[in-house]
Design brief:
InterPro entries: RNA_pol_sigma-70_dom (IPR014284), RNA_pol_sigma70 (IPR000943), RNA_pol_sigma70_r2 (IPR007627), RNA_pol_sigma70_r4 (IPR007630), RNA_pol_sigma_r2 (IPR013325), RNA_pol_sigma_r3/r4-like (IPR013324). By secondary structure, the chain is mainly α. The protein folds into two domains: 4-97, Rna Polymerase Sigma Factor, Chain: A (Orthogonal Bundle); 102-193, Arc Repressor Mutant, subunit A (Orthogonal Bundle), CATH 1.10.10.10. It contains ten helices and no strands. Helix 3 runs antiparallel to helix 4 and helix 4 (47-71) packs across helix 5.
Length: 194
């Protein structure tokens, strides 16, 4: 006799197969929600990223939606609740891979500014590099140990929120929330020190 969990697992497999067969129709059904999620996420980005990456982020979100259909388990919640988190994470990962997320962007900007400055002002290099480092270090000082660990692991070790969460015993969404709050703190600290 087949157990109830085995029956449920079979039903979930059949649902996933059907979703994947009709992924275009399901994508159309959720198109408005996907578009709203992408628009919301893009609205939080700096203008230069918004203007150049909006279409790619929309494509990334649609790919993440279809990919999520393969993993969704209806026993653990509604489809959109599950998928919406995946869309946001996918867009963040896309920008992180392109070094355009907010913290990586800050480090990237500091590095490129330092190289450009070094090319023209070799005598003032040491003083200005120290100033830049102190600026970032002072911004990091306003973070708690957990926030600092999340930011540094995400930016310097190139790990995903899920991987970081597994290391420190938190969910992917909790790590994402900690990261976003840390960014806000760092921005406020950087503005107040100017």
């Amino acid at each position: 006799m087949i157990s109830r969990p085995e029956v449920e697992d079979r039903i979930v497999r059949v649902l996933r197969e059907q979703f994947l067969k009709h992924s275009e129709e399901i994508l159309q059904r959720f198109n408005r929600q996907i578009t709203n999620t992408v628009n919301w996420y893009v609205s939080t980005l700096p203008y230069h990223i918004k203007s150049s990456e909006a279409e790619d982020l929309a494509s990334e979100a649609k790919i993440a939606f279809v990919t999520s259909l393969k993993n969704w388990d209806p026993r653990k919640g509604e489809l959109w609740s599950y998928v919406s988190l995946r869309l946001k994470g996918s867009m963040q990962d896309y920008l992180r891979r392109k070094k355009m997320d907010q913290i990586s962007g800050m480090y990237e900007w500091i590095n490129s500014a330092a190289y450009a400055y070094m090319a023209f002002n070799k005598e003032a290099i040491i003083g200005d590099q120290v100033d830049d480092l102190l600026h970032v270090e002072s911004a990091l000082k306003v973070l708690t140990d957990k926030e600092k660990e999340v930011v540094e692991t995400y930016c310097k070790k190139d790990k995903t929120f899920k991987e970081i969460g597994e290391e420190i015993g938190l969910s992917e969404s909790q790590v994402s929330r900690i990261y976003k709050e840390a960014i806000i703190k760092m921005r406020k600290s950087a503005k107040s020190s100017e």
